[in-house]
Amino acid sequence: MHSFGFRANAVLTFGITILALICAMASISDNFNSPRPSSEIQILNINWFQKQPHGNDEVSLTMNITADLQSLFTWNTKQVFVFVAAEYETPKNALNQVSLWDAIIPAKEHAKFWVQTANKYRFVDQGSNLRGKDFNLTLHWHVMPKTGKMFANKLVIPGYRLPEEYR
Ligand SMILES: *[C@@H]1O[C@H](CO)[C@@H](O)[C@H](O)[C@H]1NC(C)=O
Ligand SMILES: *[C@@H]1O[C@H](CO)[C@@H](O)[C@H](O)[C@H]1NC(C)=O
User: Fold this and answer.
1) Whose CA is nearest to atom 7 of ligand 1?
2) What span, in angstroms and rounded, lies between the C-alpha atoms of 23 and 33?
3) pTM for this predicted structure
4) What domain of life (predicted)?
5) Could you tell me if 58 and 122 are in contact, meaning their C-beta atoms sit under 8 angstroms apart?
6) What is the DSSP letter of 76?
7) What domain range is 10 assigned to?
8) Most buried by CB count within 10 Å: which residue of 1, 50, 56, 133?
9) What is the pLDDT of residues 85-99, one digit of tens each?
10) Are residues 88 and 135 located together in one domain of the fold?
């Protein structure tokens, strides 16, 4: 005959097993959610473009950033940090990366947006390499989960070019 204690223990064990299964399934579903963010960035205007007195090129531009990052959000997403960077090559460095704009997206409802903005951080080259320079814009995201590991990735939007002359 089963004692009360034995039955309670069996129920508890069953409950814990179910809970473990649910957690495993949730974390698997999180891993298998393959997000497909999309983004488009237009450069609406070169506000100004000049060589600073000590020789570094600096440009100010206005962008129209459109993005749909809703697929990054799951039950386990706390928030998403997003930033836009300009990436280009120079004789000295194979990759120069200059962050231009960033934002924190607190919820899925805010993850589909467009924003028209001048660069929030200065677009300065470590030299005077920017005239006629081809560059890419990249949209990076860092997904901060409620539990588990952070993950990051980016979209590359190629094919931009700076003017040949300062203005
Ligand atoms: C900026 O992008 C949005 C969404 O794609 C579009 O509706 C809007 O017309 C664009 N603005 C300009 C000035 O191109
Ligand atoms: C810009 O993007 C193109 C196409 O994806 C890639 O081949 C090139 O290496 C990128 N340039 C830099 C500096 O990352």
Assistant:
1) 114
2) 15
3) 0.82
4) Eukaryota
5) yes
6) T
7) 1-32
8) 133
9) 999 999 999 999 999
10) yes
